[in-house]
Specification:
This protein is mostly helical. The chain folds into two domains: 66 residues, no CATH class; 73 residues, Arc Repressor Mutant, subunit A, CATH 1.10.10. It is built from nine helices and four strands; from the N terminus they run H-H-H-H-H-H-H-H-E-E-E-E-H. It has a two-stranded antiparallel sheet. Strands 3-4 form a two-stranded antiparallel ribbon. A hairpin with a 5-residue loop joins strand 1 and strand 2.
Length: 183
């Protein structure tokens, strides 16, 4: 015997019904949104949760019961996957800031064993008690997110910024079209 419905679907407004039908027929819509829309339309027609789940290509009526509850509370926003899914970041904002700060400082030839930072020398400098498993790919991603780019001279520098020699001394020049050029 099937489990009883916990919460019936509230009556759909005309606008909601139109939007759900459009989403259910759209080939360019995300598949999870399409499945949820098909399931909600089936339940609105009076079909049991289990049958609505099968029509939508979902596994069980329990999934539909949860979807109906979310739809009753949040409306069409319930079609999207709930926030908080996926892998959590391994390194927090403070750790990322430490990676960026290390890359921006001039390396000490004796302490760091290099005159310019490469991904490998950065990894060597950052590893230890603080970041025992930090890899070069992570360093590259953190630096790119911070707005730095890898240069042919094997160094990292902030994108769109350059130091130029002038009569008055060394000046930092900023390119205002950096984001436009990066795409």
């Amino acid at each position: 015997m099937a489990a009883p419905r916990k919460e019936p679907l509230r009556p759909l407004t005309t606008e909601e019904q139109t939007r759900l039908r459009g989403i259910a027929k759209a080939s360019s819509e995300r598949i999870d949104h399409v499945r949820h829309a098909i399931a909600l339309l089936a339940v609105a027609e009076g079909k049991p949760f289990g049958k609505a789940a099968r029509e939508a290509g979902l596994r069980s009526g329990t999934t539909i019961a949860g979807l109906v509850g979310r739809f009753n509370r949040r409306g069409l926003a319930a079609l999207a996957i709930a926030p908080g899914r996926g892998r959590k970041p391994t390194y927090d904002a403070a750790a990322r800031a430490m990676v960026v700060a290390t890359a921006q400082r001039t390396p000490d030839r004796r302490l760091d064993g290099t005159a310019t930072w490469s991904l490998t020398t950065l990894r060597r400098a950052l590893r230890g008690d603080t970041f025992p498993r930090l890899g070069t790919t992570t360093i590259r991603r953190v630096l790119e997110e911070a707005g730095s780019s890898y240069q042919r001279t094997r160094t990292w520098c902030p994108t769109g910024m350059a130091q130029r020699k002038r009569k008055a001394g060394v000046v930092t020049v900023v390119d205002p079209r950096t984001e436009e050029k990066r795409g």
